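Form 7-S
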Amino acid sequence: MEFWTFEELTKAYSEGKVHPLDLKNAVAEEVINYLNPIIKWFHGGPGTRLLEDMSNIMRITR
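Output:
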């Protein structure tokens, strides 16, 4: 099933044409796909240094 607008999805869900678990899994999959480039940037890309710097800053205590 494909939806082009939020209204289409809302209507199908409210009519029981989309199971809640199917919706949850589809949304989770799309969020993961959307975040993958960011995750790669932080783990193995230029963001790795930023994470290391942030980690070092967080270790500093007063």
